[in-house]
Amino acid sequence: MGVVKTKTFKSGNSVAVRLPAELGFEPGVSVTLEKVGNDVKIKRTVDPVQEKRKLNELVAALRALGPVGEIGPREPIDIPERPGM
User: Alpha carbon 3 to chain centroid distance?
Assistant: First the structure.
């Protein structure tokens, strides 16, 4: 997308910035703002309860796969001769 330039504007008692659709979030998404020097980072807020639920679902799905079976010997790899290498 490259660099997008815009201007701030007044919204009530706050100063706001319009995010273009390519950089924006869906309406109603919770975000976290962090000031780092002269820069401002905008990140989607992580819900720890939802993240824990997703992790528990992943663990349950992996356990449902069952144990790994017997691992057999690996076939030898035939590496051809390459002169000059």
Answer: 21
Domain boundaries, the chain: 8-65
Tens digit of pLDDT per residue, the chain (85 long)? 678 888 999 999 999 998 888 888 888 889 999 999 999 999 999 889 999 999 999 999 999 999 888 888 999 999 888 888 7
Residue among 67, 58, 25, 61 at smallest CA distance from 43:
25
Tokens 């720890």 locate to 48
- Closest of 23, 25, 19 to residue 7, by C-alpha: 19
User: CA–CA separation, 6 vs 18, rounded Å?
Assistant: 8
